[in-house]
Write a structure and sequence with these properties.
The structure holds two protein chains of two kinds.
Chain A: E1 4-7, E2 10-13, E3 19-25, E4 32-38, E5 44-51, E6 57-58, E7 67-73, E8 76-81, E9 90-97, E10 105-106, E11 110-114
Parallel strand pairs in A: 2-11
Antiparallel strand pairs in A: 1-3, 3-8, 4-5, 4-9, 5-6, 7-8, 9-10, 9-11
Chain B: E1 3-6, E2 11-14, E3 19-21, E4 23-26, E5 32-38, E6 44-50, E7 56-59, E8 62-65, E9 75-77, E10 86-93, E11 100-102, E12 106-111
Parallel strand pairs in B: 2-12
Antiparallel strand pairs in B: 1-4, 3-9, 5-6, 5-10, 7-8, 8-9, 10-11, 10-12
The chains are: A mainly beta, B mainly beta.
Chain lengths: 115, 112
């Protein structure tokens, strides 16, 4: 089946620094990738949708200058949390969808802790 | 707009008990319906899906039937195990954009 990886799985950073999270589709070409944020014991909140080679579409209330998304290839998307603050601490999950199936395949998530 | 409503948890059951997690939806169009499972500290895994009315999705003993007349997609399992303890998300997708709309999630705890 389709596999999506995320790296790192956990990251701790200091307030004010930037953190990059990678999302890779390992065995299929992902024309669309999605980034979600999940708060403790809550559902997933869609942050943005990115299509390969074009700018990401951000959901209302998500700061595009803070959460930089790049989808430079059909197998890689990155989320960079710039000038991170403790309130950015969360579980970030990506998913990827190809051209044939309507199905999204999810990565294992990245736990970000900002101290 | 699209929305998914599922029963709030936590749902606590004894091993081998019968499980039902209710899910209803509203959609502007003809949705595909999904159940995802999230184990502690992990991402989401697709559990089962159904793409048209009266379809039954099934996997690992879990079942859900796409009921257009009641706009529901309830998750059931005849005999739960401790290893089924997780959070379950109902979701829908409409059209070719692949965007998912999630319900709030239901935490299931199965005790031995």
């Amino acid at each position: 089946g389709a596999v999506v990886s995320q790296h790192p799985s956990r990251v701790i950073c200091k307030s004010g620094t930037s953190v990059k999270i990678e999302c890779r589709s390992l065995d299929f070409q992902a024309t669309t990738m999605f980034w979600y944020r999940q708060f403790p014991k809550k559902s997933l909140m869609l942050m943005a949708t990115s299509n390969e080679g074009s700018k990401a579409t951000y959901e209302q209330g998500v700061e595009k200058d803070k959460f930089l998304i790049n989808h430079a290839s059909l197998t890689l998307s990155t989320l960079t949390v710039t000038s991170a603050h403790p309130e950015d601490s969360s579980f970030y999950i990506c998913s990827a969808a190809g051209t044939v199936s309507y199905e999204q395949y999810f990565g294992p998530g990245t736990r970000l802790t900002v101290t | 707009g699209n929305s998914v409503t599922q029963m709030e948890g936590p749902v606590t059951l004894s091993e081998e008990a019968f499980l039902t997690i209710n899910c209803t939806y509203t959609a502007t169009g003809y949705p595909s319906l999904f159940w995802y499972v999230q184990y502690p500290g992990e991402g989401l895994q697709l559990l089962l899906k159904a793409t048209k009315a009266d379809d039954k999705g099934s996997n690992k003993g879990f079942e859900a039937t796409y009921r257009k007349e009641t706009t529901s997609f309830h998750l059931e399992k005849g005999s739960v195990q401790v290893s089924d303890s997780a959070v379950y998300f109902c979701a829908l997708s409409v059209g070719a954009g692949n965007m998912l709309t999630f319900g709030g999630g239901t935490r299931l705890m199965v005790k031995p």
